[in-house]
Structures are given as C-alpha cells and as structure tokens.
Amino acid sequence: MKAKYILGIVIIAAAIVIIMTMTGDASSYVSFTEAKDLSDKGFKRSIHVVGELPKTAGGKIIGIEESPDKLSFKFQMVDEDGFKQQVLHANPIPADFDKSEQVVIIGTYKGEIFIAEKILLKCPSKYQEDPEFTS
Amino acid sequence: MIHIFEGLLGHIFVIVAFVSSLLAAYAYFKGKSRDEGWISFGNKLFYLHLIAILGVIGILFYLIFNHYFEYHYVFSHSSKLLPSYYQISCLWEGQEGSFLLWMFWNAILGIILINTNKFWKAPVMFIMSLTQVFLASMILGVVIFDVKIGSSPFILLRDVIDAPIFKTNPRFIPEDGNGLNPLLQSYWMVIHPPTLFLGFATTVVPFAYCIGGLLIGKSKEWIHPALPWTQFSAMILGVGILMGAYWAYETLNFGGYWNWDPVENAIYVPWLVLVAAIHVMIAYKKSGSSLKLSLILVVATFILVLYATFLTRSGILGNSSVHSFTDLGLSGQLLLCLLFFLALSIILIVKRWRQIPLTEREIAAYSREFWIFIGTAVLGLMAFQVLAYTSMPVYNAIAENLGFSLNMAPPVDIFDAYSFPQLLLAIVLAILSGTGQFLWWRKMDKNKLLDELKIPLILALVVSVFVIVIGKVSEWYYILLLITSLYSVFANLKIFISLAKSNISLSGGSIAHIGVALMLIGILFSSGYSSIMSKNYTGLVWSSEFPDDVNNNNLLLFINELRPMGDYSVIYKGIRRWTREQGYVNEDDLYYTNDPLKVVLNKDTLTLINPENSYFEVAYETKSGDSFTLYPRVQINEAMGGPVYAPAIRRSLTSDIYTHVRTFPEPEQEVEWSDPEETKVTIGDKFFINDYIATLEKLTPVDEINGTKLSKNDVAVKAVINVRGEYKDYKAEPVFLIRNKELVGRIDDEVNDLAFRISIQNIIPQENAVILAYQTTQKDWIIIEAVRKPWINLLWIGTLLLVVGFLIAMRKRYVEFMEMQQI
Lengths: 135, 823
Description:
The complex is a heterodimer.
Chain A: H1 2-25, E1 27-30, H2 32-40, E2 47-52, E3 65-66, E4 73-79, E5 84-89, E6 102-110, E7 113-122
Parallel strand pairs in A: 1-2, 5-7
Antiparallel strand pairs in A: 2-4, 2-6, 3-4, 4-5, 6-7
Chain B: H1 4-30, H2 36-65, H3 72-77, H4 84-90, H5 95-116, H6 121-138, E1 142-144, E2 147-149, H7 157-160, H8 164-168, H9 188-202, H10 204-215, H11 223-251, H12 262-287, H13 291-313, H14 331-352, H15 368-390, H16 392-402, E3 408-409, H17 414-441, H18 446-471, H19 476-502, H20 508-528, E4 531-532, H21 548-553, E5 555-558, E6 563-565, E7 568-579, E8 583-586, E9 591-592, E10 598-601, E11 604-607, E12 613-622, E13 627-630, E14 633-636, E15 643-646, E16 648-651, E17 655-663, E18 677-682, E19 686-689, E20 692-701, E21 704-705, E22 708-709, E23 715-724, E24 729-732, E25 735-739, E26 743-747, E27 749-751, E28 756-764, E29 769-776, E30 781-790, H22 792-822
Antiparallel strand pairs in B: 1-2, 4-30, 5-30, 6-7, 7-8, 7-12, 9-10, 10-11, 12-13, 12-14, 14-15, 16-17, 17-30, 18-29, 19-20, 20-23, 21-22, 23-24, 23-25, 25-26, 27-28, 28-29
Helix pairs in contact in B: 1-2, 1-6, 2-5, 5-6, 5-9, 6-10, 9-11, 10-11, 10-13, 11-12, 11-22, 12-13, 12-15, 13-14, 15-17, 17-19, 17-20, 18-19, 19-20, 20-22
C-alpha cells in the first residue's frame, strides 16, 4: 500500500499548491480610490473596478469621446462609491456598450487616467430590454 | 390578431411533459424490483412524455416560423429577415429553448434505453425520469403560492414587457422581432448546441446506471452497460466542445478558439472527469480494481454537468464572464436540482459503501492499474485546477451569505492562471498516455519496458530537434510539451501497428491517444506561436496612449492601395454584399428595392443571403503571384447597438491566415468634402481629379433622369468622364439641367472608390467645353489585424482521430456487453 499513500500525498500536495496559487492569482474588486492608492504604491497588476456609466435623464450616456480612427475611446465611469473617473479603452466601442447597466473594467492607472484592458458589460438582458415601440 | 390558442396548447404540452415525467419516475421506482406492471405503465408515461416534448418543440418552432411576435420568445430571438436555417437556431438561443433541447435528447435516450435493456430498465429509467422532472420544471412557467416555477417559452410579450403601448392597445403586435444575435448567425450555431446538449444528456446515462445499480444493490454490475455509454458521452461532449471552439475561432474577434471563459471551463471540467472515468472503468473490467473510484467519477461527472448548468444560468457569473446570461430567476431551482442529485448520490454511495469490494492487492509500479491511477489523478488535478479558479464567484456568494466579504475577482492573466498549469499537467499526461499503453497490453518489467520505449523515444527526440529548429520553438515548456506529445504519438503508433496486425477492434485507445497528442501539438503551435502579420511598419503610432500591441499590430488599408504585409501584399477593394446568384458583389453598383432581401445589379434582381451583413473584400497576393481573397464581415445590427465584426480565414495545410476588420468609417457618418476646384475642359481633354487621370469623352443630351422623362421645356446634358483608377476605369456622369429655360440644376456624380464627386458648373457651347467642379474626400479605409496560426489543422485532425478512437472503443465495449447479456 506504500506506493498508494505516497501518491495520495503527492496529489493532496498538488491540490494545495493549486489552491495557494489561486489565491495569489485572484484579482480583486476595488474602488477607483483604492486602485489609485495601489497604483501610487507601485502595485502595477490589473484590478477590477465595478461601476456604472453616467447617463442623462433620457438614458443617453455622457462623456464618451471616440478617437478619430475609432480604434479607441474614452469614457466616464462612476464606481460604487460614487467616484467619477475617466477611462481609456484601446479598442473600438463594444457593440452593446450604450445599453449596459453595469460595467466591469479590468486594468490599471496610468497617471491620472485609468487604462482598461478589458471591459465586461452587464446588460441584464441583452436581447430582452424593453423595446421602444412606435406605432 | 393575437394567436392565443397556439401558446396555450404549447403550455399544456409543457405541463403534460412535467407531470408525465413525475408519474413515470414514480412508476419506475415502484417497478424497480422488476414489477412488470409498473414498468410497462412507466413506459407508457415516458412515451407520453416524449410526445409532449415534441409537441412543445413543434409549437415553438411553428410560432417562430410564422413570426408570431406577440410571443416574447419569438420577439426576442427571431426576426422576419432571418434566413430559415437560422430560424432553427432561434429555437435554442434562449434559456428555455436550450433546456428544451436538453430534455429532447434525454427523452430520446430514455426511449432507446427502454427498448434496448430489459434488466436495467426500471432503476435506470427512474433516474432518467427524475432528471426530466427537474428539466421540465425549468420551463414550467407556473406560479404556485407566489413562487414562480420555471419560465415558459409561451409567454406573451405584453405579459413580460411593461410598455405603455400595451395599456392603450393590448392587441399590439410588433412589426418585427429583435432578431438573432449576429454572433450566433453561423452554421456552427445550428449544429453545435444540439451536439453539446446531446453530450450533456448522455452524461446522465452512466449516472443512471450507477445510481440505479446502487438502488437495486447491483453495485458493481452497472459498469458493463454503462461503459459504452460513457465512451459515447465523452465523444459527443468532446465534439460539442470543439465545435464551440471552432465557432469561436470563425466568428468571434478575440483571435482564438479558447479563452478560458467560465462557460468553456464549466463544460471542460466534467469532460476531463468523464475521460478519467472511462479509464478506471476499463481498468475495473480488466482487473476488478478501482470500482469505488469509477463510481465516484461517474457520479462526479453528472454532478459537475449540473454545476456547470448552475454556474452559467443562475447569473452568478455576472461580473466575471463576457457572455451575458439572462437571469430568468431560476437560480433557486437550479441549486435545488444540483443539491437533490448530490444528496441522492451521497446517500446511496454511503449506504452501499461497505458492499463495494476493495482490491487489497499491492499496486506494482509496472502494472497498468498504477499508471491508470496516476493518469486519473492528473486528469483530476487538471479538472480541479480549472474548477477552483472558475468557482471564484461562488466563493464570493457563499462568503456573502455567511456575512463577510471575500471580494475575489477572476485572474487577469489567463495564460498564468489556466494555460500554463494545464500545459504542465498535459506534459505529464502525454508521457503517461505513451508509456501506459505498453503496460496495458503486456506484462512488463523495467527492462522490457525500456526496450519497447526505445524506438518511440528516439524518434520523438529526433523529430523534436528538427521541429524546434525549424519552428523556432524557444520556451522550455513548449519544448517539453512537443517532445512528450511526439513521444505519445510514436509510442501509440507502435502499439497501433502491432494491434492492427492482430486485432484491429482493440485499437481504439491507441488511435484516441494519438489524436490527443496531435491536438496538443496543434494547440502548442497555433496558440503559442501565432504571429501577427499586420505589423504597423509605418513607424507612426495610432495614439501614444494606446498599449504597444494595439499600435503595432493593426494595419490601415486605404481602398485600392497596395500594402506590403509580411510575405504578402494586401489590397482592400471595397464593401461587398453576398448574393445567392452572383456571390460577392460591389455594394456601390447595387440598387435597393422595397424588399430588403432583393437588390438590382445591371437589371438583374439578386437575392441577398443575409441583408444585415456587409463584407470587406481584402485581396492577398504573394510575391510568386499566388492570390486569394478574404471577406471579413461586419453586421450593423440595431438590436446589438453597434457594428459586430467577424473574421475571415484562409486555410491551408500548414497554417491559417486569420483576418479581421477592427474598424471602418461608419456608413451613416457625414462625409467631409474639400472645397470645389474648377477646371475648364473640352472633349477629349485629359485632366486630373484627386491625382487620377480623367478624360472627358463626350457630352450627350439626355431625355430622362433617374427614369423620369424630362418635359419639352427642359434641356439636359450629360458629361461622360472616364477616370483611370488603380485597377479599373470608372465612369462619372454628372448632368447639367436647364429647367423652363431659366432654372439651372446640377446633378453631381460620385465615385466612391476614388473618393471624389464631380458636377458640371457651366457649359460653353461655342468652345465645345464645360467647366467642371470636383470635390475630394478621404478615401474609404479599414483597419485590419491579420494573424498567422501555424499547424492549427493538427488540432482538428487530432479531434477527428479522437472521435475515430472513441467509436472503435465503444463498439468493442458494446459488443462485449451484449455478449455478456446473452450468457
């Protein structure tokens, strides 16, 4: 039975290594203020910020600036603490950006601007939003 | 008119499906000790259940096909313009439909089980029916004591959407539906979901044999009938997963086939466990060992499939997945389903644990059981690793329920988080799959084994050296993966050759292992060594704020301007539409009709295959003169909010060239024209417009403009100007019109490809000359990214071999089982 036990120990050890690396690899959800703090302290790994896009009463998003070549855009985002921050995303505007209710951005600060490498949009129902019926 | 009756009938079918499965489960449970009366009653109920499901599917499809947009499901997932083969995919685009698809396969499998296996019928069908009870409850759409159970696909739009129009006019029906997500408009989306859900459904069969076996006290015999089903399930699920990967590769813009998205992970994990289960089950058949492990793995596979369903459909992934899932409020129900089957399994396993024989034999290092066991452990660790990472949102949710905040976000670098650890374990797996095969077929000691392994090992090293030098493989982990995968290929090839001589029906395992090893090599090269062809060699950056990869990897192409790109020259030739009759045609030459599907080109009426799609014609040419054309597409879809791009791929044996458009000037955007420049020309004169040579060929009187006859008092003259473009000549025909002898009209003509428009300012009859005015604008352009993916075909070839291997193995196990039954 010896070989079996050694093998068992190796497997458990491997599983523990996986769990330890996981806690290390996991990013975290922070506010803009915390993100800025981390960045100032020299922490350059990407973090997640959850927030919303400021909208007019009519539901139009304000503060989007598209670059002339449309390869990138800047936008305003308000985090869960209510802090507003300008964000740059170096990709064309995602198709359903203007319909998103909640946005998760993943990236880091570069000076005063937040560079989002990835944007996750949460449209509570991508295809089932109330349509504007006109008839 | 609102079609109430059809939906009502559909809903009745849903309720019948639910009730019949519940009653069938009860009947089979009663009949579990081979009570024929109960069993045949159960069979009748299960047939009724199948009919009800077919009824639900039939009616839902009828609603979609007839565009009954008063129904929420139809409105949300289809539209009038959708080609009919995509209307089939509308059926399963929504959550309700995909549950329906799963139930459909389960019911078909149930009918097959009823008709093929007498002894196991009652306990197995009991579990099958129980699964159907839970699945049917997801689409039940019934409210009991203020608790909503399931979400029916037959809800009317007005009952879901709180739009003011329904208050003033309850009979309102929208003109058109929201349509199918453009990303899902791919033929892969017609066949991928049915395959994947057949895979989902088949995992329940081994589970049903296992739990059914425990239920009736047959805690080891279940393996024999379950094994071919387990192999079938692994094959179908594997093919389903890879179809999804292929769809992502062809349709999505992230440039690959696998992104470690939670949705992909959630189904990859059970597949690994399923494959591990097959190995220990075969080991059990050979030597009677690892029965308990087989049992645990078969149960774990099904529980993990339910867990995957819970993860992807409960909305818990919300902040961590790019896929957005409609939360139908089913999370409680899904959790209940998961916990029910988990509890049922645990109770039965604990109850029968002592009856399950345990092998007390020492496991020798050169026995096949030992190697199978290590292999299972590695597969298990691979599954555990991905599962642990993907479950982060679940940890957060659990922590929140316990009253503290964990705040774990998914890892940002997916290579470090997933690819690298999986790759390391895959190296071990490749070594095991090569070596294990030799131990499998013969009794071995150390020396004999080394003797057998010599040739494959030497071959693998020699070929690796060549590949490493030619393919410039530099990272140590890729080098290791290459050597071990090649070793696995050669070792299994050796086994295959010796089996082919003796008994080919046993060769399934070696073929499947060669397939897996080839897949690993394909993944290694296509992912690890894909290279950007569209390097921005201009030295100009798009924006100093952009990360370097965006600045460096995209290429701007102006229309009809040749650009060198790697070994190729590329030309962007303009926007095309795809017609049934003539293939890709130039958008500028088309006239649109009132029917959005019909266009006119040179008096021929053509049919657009997909009116929402536009294609960019990008021609590639090599220095040796070979050429090909790619048509990456864009779909401007109102419901999606903006342009949705899809790549085009040039396939060749050794590599794929993957091209997609990142951005282009939007058609609705206002064009900015330069100040007009005037020039006086006589007939036959050559002059320049926007640096192109133009010739005024003639001036001719015209008597109709755009099909309208001119009146007697009107005079109109058309100038025919030939402009020599880079690749062809263009005709510009501006018109000068004098109405009622005094009012002057100037109708300009625009040549889109050359970015100018021209008009006749005045006519000087005595000199036979005209004064022309032209304005220029920016030329049409696109920004593309092109990537070369070497040896991606090995991945697909490997997949095919894996399937062939599974088929051979499955046939063998099925024949074995049938022979056993006859004894």
